[in-house]
Amino acid sequence: MCGIFGIVGHPEASNLAYLGLHALQHRGQESAGIVASDGERLRAHLSMGHVADIFTVPVIESLPGGAAIGHVRYSTAGGSRLKNAQPLSVEYVGGQMSVAHNGNFVNADELRKSLEADGAIFQSDADTEVVIHLIARSKKATFEDKVVEALSRVKGAYSLLFLAEKKLVAVRDPFGFRPLVLGRLKNSWVLTSETTALDLIEAEFIRELEAGEMVVIDEEGLRTSNPFPPTRLGRCIFEHVYFAKPDSVLFGASVYETRKEMGRQLAREQPVPGADLVIAVPDSGVPAAIGYSQASGIPYDVGLIRSHYVGRTFIEPQQSIRHFGVKLKLSAVRQVLKGKRVVVVDDSIVRGTTSRKIVKMLKAAGATEVHLRISSPPTQWPCYYGIDTPSRQELIASSHSVEEIARYVTADSLGYISLEGLGTAVGDRERNTFCTACFSGKYLTGNFGPASSDEEKKPGPKLVSA
User: Fold this and answer.
1) Do 161 and 46 share a structural domain?
2) Is 236 marked as binding a ligand?
3) Does residue 296 have a known ligand-binding role?
4) Which residues are catalytic?
5) 219 and 268 together in one domain
6) Which residue positions are annotated as catalytic (predicted)?
7) Domain range for residue 118?
């Protein structure tokens, strides 16, 4: 789910990269980095933590040049530690190179073992480093040809930015799993994960890169190609459900509007007759809750308040406070909830533990009934394409019915949007341009899902009675 940003042809490239990463902070909060080029050499600064804390004025001043790429990290392959922070940078026979990656290579372990057996020495746990080794070993003449040869050996999801001394290369995988857009700021070109980063720096949105497209920007200008064999589209539907910022335009559609439409569709499929109130689990559930209210005619109100000051770590009191972690992030508005039959809308249920705590919190605040409505289908399968979902046996919907989950979370009722309804909401009625593997188990690459029975044999999570 990481965020990437690149800019070429601007005297304050690193400063704009910092601003772009700030706009993409929702895509990763573990580490951040920027690499800048002055045309002769690359300079890098990477650190754990948030963008605003890492990039001070002296740090930005230490990254001169007219081109830069940046990355905010959300770890899937490789642990959350500094050695895995990106962009990853190396010096090799062809010069200097940095790479920022959003996605996940499903055959990275296999390639890594092969490269190590051939003498390669890895400096990180990140799957991204595999591509660096493949590029460094390529005998192709140009940098972009080396990149194409390397990527022809990997499988999975990738939106990538490569920075050399005098060149920036951007590539999106043939399925188009992860987003990547092109923008223009006067005489500068910008490439980034989401349009919200373009809005912040007042850059013009040009277009989304096509699946399998490569963009090369150097002293000769910008040129594009489609060097990979075409395949069906597999854009991540969960980007629309949760990951992307609501003000972004993603896969050709407004994220905010698609989330509202998910709520409207959810209300049509899973009504709650006689309910007094619709509320959201903030912030991700808000657009869908508004849509649910619009379609159902049930008034929308704010029944849960999210704290915007929760840090990465906190000291829990030794004397136990029930549901401490959730209460630190969310608080119930008693005056709104007391005596009401409440519909609460959230984007997903993973393990079910957080939903259970939220429902109990709402009832403790005086709600007489709590009806939980989810604007995505049951999450039954792990994602291998860049989302850190648990193993299948940890996903509550993989082994329990909707009724069983409702009893576990202590809701008076539970309803999910259907997969067909979600497809309709995102404008994909034929369901052939999005990846829905986390809901359907139909993976587009690799030997995953229902065809692999090992995980199906493992027991699901045990549900503790209310």
Assistant:
1) yes
2) yes
3) no
4) 2
5) no
6) 2 (nucleophile)
7) 3-231
